[in-house]
Design brief:
By secondary structure, the protein is of the alpha/beta class. The chain has one domain: 3-Layer(aba) Sandwich (Rossmann fold), CATH 3.40.50.1820. The protein is 37% helix and 15% strand. Helix 2 packs across helix 3 and helix 4 packs across helix 6. The longest helix is centred in the last third of the chain and has 31 residues.
Length: 305
């Protein structure tokens, strides 16, 4: 089942059996559900899992011109995600946990900041319970540097979408083809499944919101760390060539955020270390739920006094 909230397409994972806290997975620039194909089945066994398509990506329609030139900036997308989280909370009374990759990580941080700063917000009324940001954009001083390898961009993706049906063999079914296409994004591109690689490239090719989102990424930085009131974990891949560790500032993350630098990991931790991503999300949700329980108990005690 899918639904459209605040311009975001939210998809339930087929066959999901989880009844735990709701977790929303938010992809990066030009991506879609292929980002999460190696981690979603495991997470869906215990969590109510929703895969989020940003506007102009996957099953989400692009925003109209009337939305304005900054509608695809991460801060604006974060406001949309926060409004969607508020509506989900209204449905069952529980805040959501956000997991975002790259652009999606920045968007999740903006949503958490919006939640922490909203007027009248209190511990028991939060819409966002915690954030896991995987190779998040926005934690920099200077404007975002472009990846060194153009094949990761939309130009290559659209060439592939046009040319692949006419080629004698699909280059993404070869190790060298996947290395060429994903050397900037994966620490082990040859190990990627051909089907995953093909879906990822076609998602970029079809993303009508790619250019506007790319411009939004380059326009600024995450500047609302002090407004984030919930637990945050940030994962940085030591072999990330899109957002190298040296390009990100730990000081730009929310105060108290866990900063994890992973070996053997490129720009997409959910591809290179899916088991570790699953374990991290599970652990982070448990920590955030325990913290919320302690804060709720403290608030009840203060109220009864």
């Amino acid at each position: 089942m899918s639904l459209l909230l605040e311009g975001l397409a939210l998809h339930e994972v087929p066959g999901a059996r989880g009844s735990g806290p709701r977790v929303l997975l938010v992809h990066g620039l030009g991506s879609g559900t292929s980002t999460w194909s190696l981690v979603a089945p495991a997470l869906a066994r215990e969590h109510r899992l929703l895969l989020v398509d940003l506007p102009g990506h996957g099953g989400s329609p692009p925003l109209g011109e009337e939305e304005g030139p900054t509608a695809m900036h991460p801060a604006e997308l974060g406001r949309r995600l926060h409004r969607a989280a508020l509506r989900l909370r209204e449905a069952d009374g529980r805040p959501v946990h956000l997991v975002g990759h790259s652009l999606g990580g920045w968007v999740c941080l903006e949503a958490a900041a919006q939640d922490g700063a909203r007027e009248g917000a209190r511990e028991g009324a939060r819409a966002v319970a915690g954030v896991v940001a995987l190779a998040p954009a926005g934690l920099w001083e200077r404007a975002r540097r472009r990846p060194p390898l153009l094949p990761t961009g939309q130009r290559f993706a659209r060439w592939y979408a046009r040319a692949a049906p006419r080629l004698p063999a699909d280059p993404l079914r070869t190790g060298w083809g996947r290395t060429l296409a994903f050397a900037a994004t994966s620490a082990a591109p040859r190990a990627l499944a051909p089907e995953l690689a093909r879906e990822a490239v076609l998602s970029v090719a079809a993303a009508a919101g790619y250019a506007a989102a790319d411009a939004g990424i380059a326009a600024g930085a995450f500047a609302r760390a002090a407004d984030v009131r919930v637990p945050v974990a940030v994962v940085v891949g030591r072999r990330d060539r899109v957002l190298p560790p040296a390009h990100l500032r730990r000081s730009a993350a929310p105060p108290g955020a866990r900063w994890l630098e992973w070996e053997r990991c490129g720009h997409v931790p959910a591809w290179d270390r899916p088991g570790d991503v699953v374990d991290l999300v599970r652990e982070h949700v448990r920590r955030a739920e325990a913290r919320a329980g302690r804060e709720g108990a403290a608030g009840d005690g203060a109220g009864s006094a």
